[in-house]
Each structure stands twice: as structure tokens, then as C-alpha cells.
Amino acid sequence: MAKSEVFNDPVAAKVMELKKELQKLVKAIAVDDSDDFSVEALDKAHRVLCLLRDSKIKRSLSLKLNESPATVPEEFRCPLSKQLMRDPVIIASGQTYDRPFIQKWLKAGNRTCPRTQQVLSHTLLTPNHLIREMISQWCKNNGIEMPDPIQVSEDDAITEADRERFISLLSKMSSSISDQKDSARELRMLTKRMPSFRALFGETTEAIPKLISPLSPDKFKEGTNAELQEDIVTALLNLSIHDNNKKLVAETPTVIPILMGALKSGTIQTRSNAAAALFTLSALDSNKSLLGKWGALKPLIDLLDQGHELAMKDAASAIFNLCITQENKVIAVRDGIVKVILKKITDRMLVDELVTILAMFSNHPKAVEEMIEFEAVPCLFSIIRDTSSERTKENCIVILHTICVSDRTQRKEMREEELTYGTISHLGQHGTARAKRKANAILDRLNKAINFTHTA
């Protein structure tokens, strides 16, 4: 998955882009010796100058707001930019961020909360009207004009030179292996840095097939250059970040089989990026079903089982997203997800993430049977005792409650745990609201079982 990056001031970055564009336009006008130079170039230069002026004003306001960092309450600062939030939004973890900065984080392929590292169940952004109103009131009280939200464009303007370069690079994907490698590497870099190049792939149905042509199934069997494979797979990941491309990428013939094949072969970076691409594509509900039908869960589970640290997190994230749907839960259980997760958390690998996934399966009867078969109870209790994460403790006790209800034979071990460590009663008193309910429900069942035995 794309890793976290330094979040620079977007206004300053825009100013630099505008300056570069202005230099190009001025140079184009200056080198034209005739009096009949392009009026269009002059118009463009005028527009860029106006944008540069507006950006400079915004930059000055930004600097004013950050001259005295100590005066701005911490809760009004975005955890990513450390600046006063203009458009505060809430993400799935419950944390609040400034919209453009969390959008940049998510568009880079990240699917965790930057502050808590919790895997996000969805990427919807909900306006935090309360915090925005508090910021507005604070600005009024301090004689500062409430700043407008920072507008971060999804797609930069496409120049004719960009289009020509794009077409040229794609044409070389059917040329020599040397040309393929050079073009794939450049397309990987361009789709990473420039949203405009991601958007270009959505303008024609031929673009993605040309990109992946060196990895088409008939050529794949002959063996593929590892670097070429990695660059193409990573370019697919970059394309998938663009919301308008998700459906197009997933429904392009051979893309999903290529990504599934990349999960099994190539460099570990290729496998990791293939898993991240499947995760990003699965953000679209229609793609969840499509990926499940193609059989993407099995190679993802196998990749998780292999235990490569770099790829495990991406595989886990993709599995989590896909298994939000009931039909994919059935497939994942059939493909051995329960055994693999229990093996990993027993070895204390990705415990928080994998226990979250395991909790998703606590309403699936077959999955619960396998949890009992593979001795989940002692493993989950040991995690509760070891972890400091309240969310992980909650998920563990949710699973244990389901097991307690489903199989009476497991209650003896739970009773022994309580007598030895007091684990359940401690959660019943000090856990999250949900953890307290589940822990106390288990204690009620254990006490009723004891009373029934004594009565009998």
C-alpha cells in the first residue's frame, strides 16, 4: 500500500506550480520573434497571474494564522497539517482531520487512521459541524476572519504535451522489452505524482489494456521481467486511487487475474502493491462482489499466511474490505481465513487488525465452529491480558461471547480464566461500553451454569 508522506502546505505547492507554468508561457511568448504571437498564450499567462495573486493572498492568510502556534487550540489543528482546520471532517475511526489533508492521505492509498493506525471500515468523510462552529467562534473572538476551505483539485489541467507523452508511453508498451520497462517505470512515476495522468486513463477504454499488455495471460506463462511486473502492478494501484477509475480498472478484462497472479509471484513489493490495489478497488461495492467471484480472496489469504511483513498489512486490509459483504465472508471461511488468522495472532502478528477481521466472522456459524476447533478461546484471553488496545479487547470479548453462547463446553475454560485472572470481570468493569455488555453477559451465563449445577 502507498505509505504515509510529508503533507506540505498545498497553497505553497500550488504557488510553485503556477510559477513554473508562468515561466513556460513567458518563454513561449518571448521566443516568438514575430508580432503574431499566440493570443491564447497571453490569455493563459493572464489567468495564471490572477491565480498566482489569489494564491499569494491565501498564503499570507495561512502564515498569519500560524504566526503564533501556541494561540491556536490543539483540538482546532489538523493532526496531519498541524494547521487550523478549514473544513473539519470525521473519518471511520472517529478522529477529525482537515478535509484536503485526509483526502490526500486516502488518495495516496492509505486505509488506516493516521493518528490511531486503526484500519478504516470505510473512507466516507462526515463534516464535523460542531468543531467547525467552535473554530468559527474562536476566529471571531480573536479578530481573525474564518478561512475558506482549501480547495485541492482532483485533476490538474492536462496540457497537450501531457497527452502526447501519455500516448507515446502507451504505444511503447507493445514494443521491445527495453521500451516496455522504461515506459512502465515512467507511467508508474507519473500516475503516482500527477492525478491528471490517472484521469487520462479513464478517457479511453484502450489505455488500461495497453498498460497491462506485457502481462496478458498468454505472455505471463513465458515468464515476466520482475521489475516490469512491479511497475505495471504499481501503476494499476495508482490508477485505482482515482475514484472515477475504480470501476473501469476492475472491469477491464485480465486486470483482476493479473493482480491475483501478482499476489503469488514477483517481488514482495509487487505482491504488496497488488494486495493494495485489490483493497483500493474493493472500496466500490460493486467491485467487492466482482473480486469475490473472481476468487481474489484465496490468494490474499495465502499471502497473509506467508507472513511477509511488508505484504501482510495490505492483504489484511483487502480481506477486511471484501468481507464486509456476507457472500465474501462465506468464501473467506471456505478458503481458510479463520485458521490463518488464529495462527498469526497466536504469533502476535498484526494482532489489532486481524482480531478486527475475526470479529467480523463472529456472526458466521461455520467460522465460529472453526474458532472453537482451532482453540481460539485461550488465544483471545491471552491477547486481552497482553494488549493495551481497548478496541482489540472489545473485539476479543465479542468473539468470546459468541463462542460462549454457541458452545457450552467452552464455558469451563472461560470460568477457569475468570478464576485465575479475573479477565472477564475486569472488562465488565473497565472496558468500553460494548465490552462491558459482552463481558457481563458471559458472566451471567457462567453464573447461571454454576447455579444450575448446584441445584441439580
TrEMBL record:
Name of the top EC class for this enzyme: transferase
The UniProt record lists the keyword Transferase: yes
Pfam families from the UniProt entry: U-box
Gene Ontology BP annotations: protein ubiquitination
EC number: 2.3.2.27
One MF annotation (Gene Ontology) recorded for this entry: ubiquitin protein ligase activity
Pathway membership: Protein modification; protein ubiquitination
Catalytic activity as recorded in UniProt: S-ubiquitinyl-[E2 ubiquitin-conjugating enzyme]-L-cysteine + [acceptor protein]-L-lysine = [E2 ubiquitin-conjugating enzyme]-L-cysteine + N(6)-ubiquitinyl-[acceptor protein]-L-lysine
Keyword terms, alphabetized: Repeat, Transferase, Ubl conjugation pathway
Domain U-box, first and last residues per copy: 71-145
Cited PANTHER family: U BOX DOMAIN-CONTAINING, U-BOX DOMAIN-CONTAINING PROTEIN 9
Name of this protein: RING-type E3 ubiquitin transferase
